[in-house]
Fold this protein.
Amino acid sequence: MTTLAVRHTVNDFDTWKAGFDGHDSGRRGHGSTGYRVLRDGNTVLALIEFPDAAAVRAFTTDPALREAMDKAGVVGTPDVSIWSEAEREQY
């Protein structure tokens, strides 16, 4: 599993979340299997799971992603990174 980590500031969390939810078909269309959203005020960290790095790259280079982020009120340039799962344990 590969996780796309996207950290950014938003104008308004509720507006951003509505836009994020509205882009669900875009994530799923590129193979996303789920996500977690963490927030600290108007700073958001979205952890989006994909089956592999190729699926992440296809998603992040899709022009519809930037359009969705702009409409959702993302401020500035997001901090984007790709993480490969090394181990998972749940309690």
About this structure: Residues 13-22 form the longest helix (10 residues).
